[in-house]
Each structure stands twice: as structure tokens, then as C-alpha cells.
Amino acid sequence: MSLINDDLQDLLIAYCEPESELLQHIDRETNLKVLMPRMLSGHYQGRVLSMLSKMVSPKRILEIGTFTGYATLCLAEGLTKDGILYTLDVNEELEDMVRGNFAKSAFNHQIKYILGDANSTINDLDEIFDIVFIDADKKNNGTYYDLIFDRVRPGGIIIVDNVLWSGKVLQEKQDKDTRNITSFNDKIADDKRVEKLILPVRDGLFVIRKL
């Protein structure tokens, strides 16, 4: 999923902040015990998410797609002392692992972990968000974007993962999943309500700032 070679990836990691012991543990346990461990954000992308969050100093964060909680904890590093992070997921099989990971962190009391279909659970949240991170089922990126847009404050940011789709977005003949990614990217490119750029981090992070 990384767009750069292993040697350069190692160099980038060498020059960024180290992982905490808890994040190392989550990475290791995810790779040992969970299907499709490549879905985990990992060290470098995790530090990017942490840096973006710290630059915003958010009071409210929404994450759509928890997986094993690695990115959740990276984003939580930027929360204000009274901040709250809501993270939404549908995978009940990972609940015990995720709650255990959160319980070991300093941010456990600030994280609201909600299981269920995000199309429904988003509507239960009466909040205005400073940061939204969308990293769930890619076919619904556009749906989630539309659902949360009015809940993001002016100047807030929306981050969407996997928007380069292992480089497949460059192909002329695209499969259904790739077409979904490309259609979403085109949708954001045409949205005059936001500033936007894609960071070539891991599998591509779309960083979108609401005007």
C-alpha cells in the first residue's frame, strides 16, 4: 500500500517521532491476530495524523472506521484537555481488543467508541467537529463526506484515507473499487466549499479544509 520504497520509508520513520509502547503493541497484535492488518495506519501515517491533530488542537474529533484503534490514539494526542473523540465502527468482533487498547491509553476517558452503521450513528451525534477522519468502507466515502460536512466547523479539516488506492487511480481501465475512489477524488476536486490537497502518505491522505 505504500507508494515509496522500503529504504525511503525507513528513512522517513527514522526522522519522525517514535511510536509509544502502546502503539507498538497495537501494531504487533494487529499483525498477529487480525485479518487484513494492512488496514492499520502504522508508524509514519500515525505521526502525520498526530501532527495534524496537534496543529488544530481539536475539542471534537470524529473518526469513521476504528479498526484496532491505532489511528484513534494518534488523533487523540492533539485533543484539548476537555476534548472528546468519537470513533465509529461496525466490527463487533474487534470490540474487546479495541476497548482493551483504549483502556491502556491516557485518552480512554476522552474516547467514545460506538458500534453500529455509521450512516445511522453519525446522526445520533449532536456535535460540531474540528477534525473528521474517514477511513471505513471506501464505497461510502462520498456518503460519509456529505453526512458530516455541515457538522464540521469553518476552518475544520476532513481527512480521508486510501485515496491513491495503491496507485490504481492512475490506470485508464479501473475496477469498481478504483472507480469509487476516483469518483470521490473528483467530487472533492470540484467542491468549491473547501481547500484540498492529497498527501502521498502511505496509500494517500486527502486533507480537506472547510472554508
What can you tell me about this protein's structure?
It is a single chain. The chain is an alpha/beta fold and 211 residues long. It has helices spanning 6-14, 21-33, 42-56, 70-76, 95-103, 118-121, 141-149, 176-189, and strands at 60-64, 84-89, 111-115, 129-134, 152-161, 194-199, 205-210. A 7-stranded mixed beta sheet has the order 3-2-1-4-5-7-6, with helices on both faces. α3 runs parallel beside α4 (70-76). The chain starts with 5 loop residues before the first helix and ends with a strand. It contains 8 helices and 7 strands. The model has no long low-confidence stretch (mean pLDDT 97). It is 38% helix and 21% strand.
Break the fold down into its secondary structure elements and pairings.
Blueprint: H1 6-14, H2 21-33, H3 42-56, E1 60-64, H4 70-76, E2 84-89, H5 95-103, E3 111-115, H6 118-121, E4 129-134, H7 141-149, E5 152-161, H8 176-189, E6 194-199, E7 205-210
Parallel strand pairs: 1-2, 1-4, 2-3, 4-5
Antiparallel strand pairs: 5-7, 6-7
Helix pairs in contact: 3-4
